[in-house]
């Protein structure tokens, strides 16, 4: 059986001026259709009965066609691809093959931008065409080798207001930066480095963009000093402010902000006032 969107081994059953026709080993028995491998991709000195490993896709006229090129992904697999253009029906993504891949609007987790890369999975739509989706969670794995406090890299594939930032670690493992964790400025498609904060019972990873508390405190303190410098030596709130206000203003939780402020106060670098913080 010739399988769309997959790499498989087929047999040369016919030679023509413009290429060779391939079919599976059982073609003579069950009448499975043949597929063309264009002449420009046919190796020299091949003969009838030779086996070839090819990828099957559809050309610009929606005909099945074979290629000896290896694409970035097959059906059910994931890859990061670049948006070439956005049209009325969705976005078109570039890959190794000549015909671009469609990313329908209904399969986008955010509005995509030309020139930017996004993590997608390849599937066959109801019309029998190869398409991509940014709704990649069903394709991700939960058997990662990572442990608590390991450093990992991944790509953001969705941001949910209620839950947080969803990340595909190594482009294949499910992970989440919870909403309570600071992640300001992160967008879908961004490549990030993070720390494993927890490995859940089901194997999914909980991530943090921040270091462990005793390491992060110095980074946070430096950030506050920079804010003070940019604001002329004073910021109009202190560690008694509303947690959401602190998060929006600094990207830190209230506890993280409080620890950093305490660190600076002990070093006598700041003065804590009733309605703000002032640089000494």
Describe the structure.
By secondary structure, this protein is of the alpha+beta class. It has four domains: 7-67, OB fold (Dihydrolipoamide Acetyltransferase, E2P); 78-137, OB fold (Dihydrolipoamide Acetyltransferase, E2P), CATH 2.40.50; 141-208, Nucleic acid-binding proteins (OB fold (Dihydrolipoamide Acetyltransferase, E2P), Beta Barrel), CATH 2.40.50.140; 213-279, Arc Repressor Mutant, subunit A, CATH 1.10.10.10. It contains four helices and 18 strands. The chain has a five-stranded antiparallel beta sheet with strand order 3-2-1-4-5, with no helix packed on it. A hairpin with a 6-residue loop joins strand 7 and strand 8 (101-104). The longest helix is centred in the C-terminal third of the chain and has 18 residues, at 213-230.
Primary descriptors:
5-stranded antiparallel beta sheet; OB fold (Dihydrolipoamide Acetyltransferase, E2P); 280 residues; alpha+beta; 18 strands
In short:
By secondary structure, this protein is α+β, with helices and mostly antiparallel strands.
Structural class, by secondary structure, is: alpha+beta
The CATH topology of the largest domain turns out to be OB fold (Dihydrolipoamide Acetyltransferase, E2P)
H/E element sequence: EEHEEEEEEEEEEEEEHEHHEE
CATH architecture descriptor name of the largest domain: Beta Barrel
Contiguous low-pLDDT stretches (5 residues minimum) are none
Range of helix content: 10-25%
Which value, in Å, is the CA radius of gyration? 27 Å
Placed side by side, the strands forming the largest sheet appear as 3-2-1-4-5
CATH superfamily of the largest domain, called what? Nucleic acid-binding proteins
- Quick one: overall form? elongated
Question: Hey, roughly how much beta strand do the residues contain?
Answer: 35-45%
State the total count of DSSP E strands.
18
């Amino acid at each position: 059986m010739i399988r769309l969107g997959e790499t498989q081994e087929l047999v040369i059953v016919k030679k023509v001026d413009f290429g060779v026709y391939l079919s599976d080993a059982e073609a003579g028995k069950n009448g499975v259709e043949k597929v063309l491998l264009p002449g420009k991709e046919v190796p020299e000195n091949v003969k009838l009965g030779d086996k070839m490993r090819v990828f099957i896709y559809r050309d610009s006229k929606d005909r099945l066609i074979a290629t000896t090129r290896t694409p970035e992904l097959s059906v059910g697999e994931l890859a990061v691809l670049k948006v070439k253009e956005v049209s009325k029906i969705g976005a078109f993504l570039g890959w190794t093959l000549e015909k671009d891949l469609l990313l329908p609007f209904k399969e986008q987790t955010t509005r995509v931008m030309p020139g930017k890369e996004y993590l997608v999975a390849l599937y066959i739509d109801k019309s029998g065409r190869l398409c991509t989706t940014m709704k990649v969670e069903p394709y991700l794995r939960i058997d990662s080798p990572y442990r608590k406090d390991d450093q990992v890299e991944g790509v953001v594939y969705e941001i949910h207001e209620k839950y947080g930032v969803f990340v595909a670690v190594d482009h294949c493992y499910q992970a989440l930066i919870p909403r309570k964790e600071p992640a300001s400025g992160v967008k879908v498609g961004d490549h990030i480095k993070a720390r494993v904060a927890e490995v859940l019972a089901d194997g999914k990873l909980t991530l943090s963009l921040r270091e462990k508390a005793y390491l992060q405190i110095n980074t946070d303190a430096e950030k506050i000093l920079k804010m003070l410098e940019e604001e002329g030596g004073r910021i109009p709130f202190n560690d008694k402010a509303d947690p959401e206000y602190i998060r929006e203003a600094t990207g830190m939780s209230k506890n993280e902000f409080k620890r950093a402020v305490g660190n600076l106060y002990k070093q006598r670098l700041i003065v804590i006032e009733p309605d703000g913080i002032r640089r000494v």
